[in-house]
Amino acid sequence: MEATAATVFIIDDDSSVRKGLVRLLRSAGWNAEAFASAEAFLARPDHEDIGCIVLDLCMPGMSGQQLQDLLQERNIVLPIVFLTGQGDVASSVVAMKKGAVDFLLKPIDSHALLQAISEATLRHAAALEKSHDIASIDARMARLSTREREVMEQVLTGRLNKQIAGVLGIAEKTVKVHRGRVMAKMEVHSVAQLVHECELVGINSDSRGTVQTSAAVR
């Protein structure tokens, strides 16, 4: 994914700020869309590609912080760069704790803004790539039978085929067959790769050889 193909959504009730930022960002090679309010942005169809939001903190109607909270509730992960003319330190701390990329004071320093947008879009590109990887792993894992899933979880603990056979009460030869099917269905070529992909979706083995599944796994 190329972050240079990103779209920057400018949300500010000041028309002069919107126009100036659109010109700046387009001249720097970004796609840019401007909205006079958070409500207007929310009326837009969901954005599926790389992007970020340049968001005014204080606006009539829904504030920037309220929009940030709503996007988090809806699991919309577009990174946010906040703008403010008030220099509200307390608000900036809250916004950054909630994941904002930066908090810039008006009048905006163009170089600082472009740097923040570059960081935001790269962050979003990485998040989308990870999300796609997780979806792919989930789809492959769904192909596993119940027994194959059990064998896979035992493989993750580092147990040998003979040990797995003892734990599951099946023949070692049967373990080998299921293990081969797991590797084929998961499209991996080594146990290390299998462990890595399982870790991405929250499946880990602890020091006692017990498999733990994160609540985040779908």
From TrEMBL:
It comes from Agrilutibacter niabensis. Pfam families: GerE, Response_reg. It comes from the Bacteria. InterPro entries: CheY-like_superfamily (IPR011006), Sig_transdc_resp-reg_receiver (IPR001789), Tscrpt_reg_LuxR_C (IPR000792), WH-like_DNA-bd_sf (IPR036388). Residues 7-121 form the Response regulatory domain. This is FixJ family two-component response regulator. The modification 4-aspartylphosphate is found at residue 56. Keywords: DNA-binding, Phosphoprotein, Transcription, Transcription regulation.
